[in-house]
Amino acid sequence: MAQHDTEHIINITIENKFGALSRVAGLFSGRGFNIESLSVAPTLDPTVSMMTIVTKGDDWIIEQIIKQLNKVIDVIKVVDISESDFVERETALIKVHTRPEDRAEALRIADIFRANVVDSSPTSYTIEVTGDVRKVQAIINLLQPLGIKELVRTGRIAIMREPIRTGAATRSLAKAN
Amino acid sequence: MKLSGSEIFVEALKREGVKTIFGIPGGVVLKIFDVLHQQNDIEVILTRHEQGAGHMAEGYAKATGQPGVALITSGPGMTNVITPLADAYMDSVPIIAFSGQVPTPLIGNDAFQEADNIGLSRPCTKYNFLVKDVNDLAVTIKEAFYIAKTGRPGPVLVDIPKDISMAKTDFKYPESVSIRGYNPTYEGSKWQIKQAAEAILKSKRPILYIGGGVIFSGASREVRELAEMMQIPVDMTLMALGAFPGDHPLSLGMLGMHGTYVANMAIHYSDLVIAVGARFDDRVTGKVSEFCPQAKIIHIDIDPTSIRKNIHVHIPIVGDCKRVLQELNQILRATVNGDQKELRKPWWDQINAWRAEHPLRYDQPPDGKIKPQYVIDRLYQLTADRDPIVATDVGQHQMWTAQFFKLANPRTWLTSGGLGTMGFGFPAALGAQAAFRKRLVLCIAGDGSIQMNAQELATAVVNKLPVKVFIMNNHFHGMVRQWQDLFYEGRYASSYLDVVPDFVKLAEAYGAAGLRLEKVSDVDDVIREALALDKPVFVDVMVDQFENCYPMIPAGGCNHEMILSDPPELKERQKMGVPKHQESKDGVLTA
Ligand SMILES: Cc1ncc(C[n+]2csc(CCOP(=O)(O)OP(=O)(O)O)c2C)c(N)n1
User: Fold this and answer.
1) Is B190-357's fold the same as B372-552's?
2) Closest C-alpha to ligand 1, atom 4
3) Which residue in B2, B43, B112, B571 is the catalytic one?
4) How many angstroms separate the CA atoms of B239 and B226, rounded?
5) Active-site residue, from B62, B126, B162, B468
6) pLDDT(B437) > 90
7) CATH number for the domain whose boundaries are B190-357
8) In the CATH scheme, what architecture does the domain B3-169 have?
9) pTM of the prediction?
10) Mean per-residue pLDDT of chain B
11) How far is the alpha carbon of B552 from chain A, nearest alpha carbon, in Å?
12) CATH class as words, domain B372-552
C-alpha cells in the first residue's frame, strides 16, 4: 500500500460528558494515530459536543480512524469533512514585539489580513486573526521578523457548505458498531 | 421504599440473572459486601487475589455465555484487576468489574486507596462508568450489562464511590436501554452476502477460517452446515477451538504460529478465505504481505474495525456471524448443484496429502522421559466422553493442548489468546467450575504459569471447586526456552526455574490433593486417580525438559514456511543437558 498521507478534518459529534474527550484522545495516542489539532465545544444541544480533529494518514489509516471513532460508545456521529466541500476557520492571537520603528509595519500587516488589534502596549500589539490555515500561517510568517512573543491558536474548525445544487458529494459515514 | 446504593446494586444484579460474584472486600465496598452477606440469591466467592477474581469472572463468562462479575475495592483492588480487564478486552469476554471508589467529595485528593479507576481502565475496557449520583446507579448497571454482552462483547467497569453505595433513593430498574452512540450492526448487507455466495460457488480451493466470534455469536451449527454442504475445510484460531468439532473430518485443526501443517498450507494455497468472527491476528497471518497470496477474502465480523485492519478484504460483511451465515447458507442451499464431494476432490486430495505429509506427532519412548504431548493426548482420550471444560495457562503446554485436545463443543475452551496472560488458566477454570458444579473442569498449566495464581488453591478448597490441574513441570519457562534455543543460540537468560515448589506439598498445604507423575507407565493410572478425586487436585507431571512445540512459524514468517522439528545443531546442544551451574543468579545459568 504505497499510498501517501493526506490531511483530513474530522467532525465528531460526541456526548458532552465526563471522560468523553479522553476516550477520543486516548484512542489516537493508543493506536499511534496523529492529531494535528483538536478543538471541542458544546453544540446547541448542551448534552452534545462537537469535536474537530485534523489528522494525517493514508486512506487505509483514515478508514481505521473513522471506524475506531465510530466504535467509541460516546461518539454519536463521525463525518470526514474533507471528503466534501467545506469552510474551515482558525483563530490565532499573536502578541508581536514592536520597536517604535516597527509599529506601523505591524499595523499594516494586520490590515492586509483584516486582522484586529485587540490589545496594545508601548512595546507590543496583540493581533487577532481569523481565517483558513493558509491565511493564519501567512500572517504569522510576515510578523515573525518583527518578533512574536506569544502565539495562541484555537485549532481548526470546519463545517460543510450547504449544497446549492443537488449532487454535491458528501459522505457521512453512518455509525455502525 | 427507598433503597441504599448497595441494595440497589444487589437488586439490579439479581435482575440481570447474576448467580455468582468473585471478589475481595475493602473499605469502600464494605457496605456492598454487607448487603450481599444478608441474601442468598447471589453467591459471593472470596478469591485470594483480585487478578484471580477477574480471571474467574472470565472463565465463568466464557463457559456460560453470561457476563461474569467481579467486585473489588479501590486503589490496589482496582490495579490488581487491570490484567483480567485487558485480557477480556483482547479476547472479547463479557465481564463487569464493579470497583469501589473513595467518597465523591474526596475524589482527586489523593485520598487513602484512591486510584483513577476510570483513567486506569479506559484503554482496557469496552466502556467504563463513574457513578456520581445514586439515582443513576440502576440505569448505569443496566447499561453496563447491555454493553458488555451485545455487539462485540467485552469488559465494562463500573466505579462506585463509597457515598453512592450508602445513599438512598427509590429503586426502579429500567426495562430497556438505548444509547445513542451505540447501535451494533447485526444484519449483514444482503448484497454482500450474495457476493459471498457467488464467490463460494466459484471457488475451487475455499477454506473457512473461524475465530472466537463464532462462539460468542453461537454460530457453530451454521458453520458446520456451511462446511458440510460445500465440503469446505475448516481452520480454527486458538480462540475458536470447540466451535467446530476437532475430530470432524473437515477440521484441519488450529492454524497460525503453532498451527498444524495442513491448516497453514491449506489457507496459504487457498483461492478463497471465508473468515468468520476472526481478526487476522499477527499470530495467524504471519508476514502480512505474503498471507494467502492467491485468495480472495470474505470477512464476516460484527466489529467493523476488525475488517481491513491488517489485511485487504474483498467482500467485507459487518454483522452477527450467526445471522449472516444463516442467510448465506440459505442462498447456497437454493443454488448449489452437483456433488460437492466430487467437485472438491482435487482440493481434498491435496489437503489429505499435506495431512499425511506432516501430521502432528511426538515420540514417546515407553520407558523414557514423559512427553508433555503424550500426557495431554491421554488426558484427552480418557476424558473425551465427559465433554470436559479445558483451561490452559500460557506457554508450550497451551499450544500442545490446543493441538492435541480435540474439543467437541463450544464454550469448553478457556485460554488467554490475545494478551497471552500467564496465570489465567487456574482461576478461569475455577470460574467455570463455579458455574457448572457437576462438570469435569481440567486445567493444563506450566510450572511457570501456575505460580502466578497458585494462591487460588484456597478459593478452590473453600468453595469446593474440584478442578483438576495438570502441571507440565519442565523447570523452565518452556516457551521462552524454546525461543532461546531457536533464536538465541541456547542462552537461557532468565528462563530456567531454579526453584520450583513441590506442587504436591503445595496443594496439600492448602487442603487440596497433590499427585506426582514421573513414569510413562503411570500416566493413565495417575490421570484416572486424579479424575476420581472429589476435590481440587494438582498433578505434578515431570516432563521432558527440552521438548519443543512444532510446527512453528517464526514471528513474521510465512505460513507455508514452518519449522517442523528441532534443527540438528539444537539436538546436539541439548544432548549436553541443562548446564550445571556453578554460579547461579536466579534464573540465569552459568556453565
Ligand atoms: C504474565 C506473563 N509474563 C510473561 C509472559 C511471557 N511468557 C510467555 S510463555 C512464558 C513461559 C511459560 O512457562 P510455563 O508456564 O512453565 O509453560 P511452558 O512454556 O513451560 O509450558 C513466558 C514467561 C507471559 N506470557 N505472561
Assistant:
1) yes
2) B422
3) B112
4) 20
5) B162
6) yes
7) 3.40.50.1220
8) 3-Layer(aba) Sandwich (3.40)
9) 0.94
10) 95
11) 28
12) alpha beta
